[in-house]
Amino acid sequence: MLLIYMNTKEKNILSSRLCVLFFLQFAAWGAYLTSMGAYLAKIGLTSQIGYFYSVQGIVAIFMPTLMGIVADRWIQAQKLLAACHFSCAGLMAVVALRGLSSDPSFLSLFVPYTMAVAFYMPTLSLSNSVAYSAMSGADIDKVATFPRIRIFGTLGFIASMWIVDLIGAQESPQQFIIAAVWGVIMGVYSLTMPQCPVAEHNETKSIAEQLGLNAFKLFLNKRMCIFFIFSALLGMSLQVTNSFANPYIRSFAKVPEFARSPFVEHSNMLISLSQLSELLCILLIPFFMKRFGIKTVMLISMLAWVLRFGLFGIGYPAWPGITALVLSMIVYGVAFDFFNISGSLYVDNNVGTSLRSSAQGLFVLMTNGIGSSIGMLLAQMVINETVVPAISATTRIEGWQTAWLIFAAYSAIVALLFALLFKSGGNEKEEREEVLDSVE
To answer: Does the pLDDT value for residue 79 go beyond 90?
Structure first.
């Protein structure tokens, strides 16, 4: 009885430590992700906002996978996680210093920012690997427990958003200083986490196996191949509202009837309702995953993206239009988490221990890498056609609303194709064995 009590206590302590880990992980991201667009618009870089958001997708094409391979083969994941956060924090500080100059140029901000996110993006999968490894070592049910732990990542993201809003840094480079501070704290804390195993070296293995490139063999399995392709297609939507929601809402400030709206003045806090909705949605994931399976969960996410964009297209920061904006924030939790977290769990359940980090890196590559980068470049093209040429404040807002409806139509097409093409729902053990057979 005492042994059971001690085991339960140790599991609770570990779960609490992982909660802190994810709080810090996403606090570093939340400091700038939703407000950077407003800052860039203020300094005259509206037509280039998409490049800042797409570059984190571009670096995610190779950095998470490379770091995942390193974590699987040579360096313990928790140590590599710390190194990445320290590097990102230093470069974010450089971005802040460049931004504080009298007239920051596109390149003076873009170059160090690109280098910073090149180190941050791998931490999304590395933090998952650290958590999954620790939970496996403590015999903790990942599907039932991880969503509750991941909630604290959302709380960290919201905390940073509110700090940036309340100190008036939404249109200031100070937001990058806050990101740097969180990054240093996260780096130190990562070093205190349980040690993650690395694969034993075997000289008889091929070069591809030594590098962990077997994760790419997951594409040989038809079901996993379709899953990753649609992960990329859905990933094209992930950063659109993060990059353009704030500039869109703040553009209403130039229209007299909306100029004094608290929803415009505190747009970051309004947008944070999106993250607050995640708190409930994350808790629903275990139920939906076990009851309906990955296909239904991802389809629900895709339909939620249709609502997310469509409601933005008809909303405005005053009654009754504000109800559409609020509803758009609420469905974000379903749109983002039902895909991101359930997808991560689905990948983990279908790969072996030796591929865990590299498979998670591959998932981030397809979503936050290929999908996000292409999506942001295409979204910027839409914005440049509908918003940037507008002469008056009114026509600019109309351009924004047209763009949101275009994004909604895209999401609806992806949802329809996914419903027709993706097949799953069989025995979980049999599906796992089928996937592992394809990479051997």
So the answer is: yes
Which residues form the domain of 189?
A: 2-197+209-439
Copy the structure tokens of residue 44.
Answer: 């005259």
In a domain, 204, yes or no: no
The answer to whether residue 122 sits within a structural domain is yes
pLDDT at 373: 87
Chain centroid to Cα 386, Å, comes to 26
DSSP labels for 415-429?
Answer: HHHHHHH----S-HH
Is residue 264 situated within a structural domain?
A: yes
Residues 6+ away with beta carbon under 8 Å from 394: 255
**What are the backbone angles phi and psi of residue 342, rounded to the nearest 5°?**
-65, -35
What's the farthest any 2 CA atoms get from each other in the chain?
Answer: 74
Q: Is the model's pLDDT at 5 over the cut of 50?
A: no
* CA distance to 245, 257, 315, 397, per residue, from 252 (Å): 12, 9, 11, 7
Radius of gyration of the chain (CA): 21
CB 60 within 8 A of CB 342: no
The count of domains in the chain is 1
Average pLDDT over all residues of the chain: 86
The span from the CA of 214 to the CA of 132, in Å, is 20
203 in any annotated domain: no
The closest of 86, 87, 116, 119 to 187, measured between CA atoms, is 86
CATH of the domain at 185: 1.20.1250.20
- pTM beyond 0.85, yes or no: no
Give the single-character DSSP code of 255. S
The least confident of 28-37, 311-320, 350-359, 405-414 is 350-359
DSSP string across 43-106: TT-GGGHHHHHHHHHHHTTTHHHHHHHHHHHTS-HHHHHHHHHHHHHHHHHHHHHHHTSSS--H
pLDDT of residue 6: 44
Residue type, 168: G
Write the DSSP string, 320-368.
THHHHHHHHHHHHHHHHHHHHHHHHHHHHHTS-GGGHHHHHHHHHIIII
Six-digit token string for 407? 């994004």
The residues near 67 (Cβ < 8 Å, ≥ 6 apart) are 80, 84, 122, 125, 126, 357, 361
Q: CA–CA distance from 223 to each of 217, 229, 294, 422 (Å)?
A: 12, 10, 12, 7
